[in-house]
Amino acid sequence: MQDIGFDLISDLHLAPDDSFNWEGKATSLYCLVAGNISSSLRTVVQTLSHLGRFYQGVFYVPGVLEYETAESISKRTAELIAVTKAIPNVCMLHQHVVIIDGIAVVGINGWSNIGDSLTLDNLLPASARHEDVSYLYNAIGKLQKHLDIKKMIVVTSAVPHPDLYFGEKPDIADDQIPLRATLSNDTEHKVTHWVFGTYDKSADVTIDNTNFVNNPYMKNPYWAKRITLSV
User: Fold this and answer.
1) What is the CATH number of the domain that holds 103?
2) Where are the alpha helices (DSSP H) in 97-212?
3) How far apart (Å, rounded) are the C-alpha atoms in residues 113 and 90?
4) Does residue 199 contact residue 216 with C-beta atoms inside 8 Å?
5) Which of 33, 150, 161, 187 could make a disulfide contact with 178, Cβ separation 3.0–4.6 Å?
6) Whole-angstrom Cα distance, residue 184 to residue 172?
7) What residues have CB less than 8 Å from 139, skipping those under 6 apart?
8) How far apart are CA 187 and CA 192, in angstroms?
9) Each residue of 33-64: pLDDT tens digit?
């Protein structure tokens, strides 16, 4: 049995001229970034490159903020995939799974807080959300069958369920299938943690044996929130 730790950060909302220094703040070998670093692609690259200096692995899910300056959803996704591939120790979790010592980390954006009024590349964010939800549901199901995978972490920029807004949910949340519904495919109860972004207050709650946790950038000094899994 060994303990594996992950540092969680999200929702930095950095402008191009903002400073961000993570030196001396890492508490784990791995870092989970649950979206909304910046609307500036260059700032996203700089921030992830900086984080990659302090971790053996940085697993990043883009948030809605990263698409604000995009010409299209598909083009920005392709740009993010291309630039993150070139950054040492950084992996973009766009409908992707990483396996570490028996732990599967699966990530999607999830597209919360966005209505159908925003259309990019003739693709509604609602359609992008449906694609993400379908991927996550199927990935969770397939990973149940892998005997080497003992536990799973889901990483989404989107809030997994309206209840996790703690009474502050936006109207759009009532019209969306909750991402947490994908856990119906977690038949072996492998999903121990669900890390998310977007909600601007700290949350750490266990529902049906899954720990839902976030760590938005709210004030200085800002520190990572560490989650630990034993495998």
Assistant:
1) 3.60.21.10
2) 125-143
3) 27
4) yes
5) 161
6) 23
7) 95, 97, 106
8) 12
9) 999 999 999 999 999 999 999 999 999 999 99
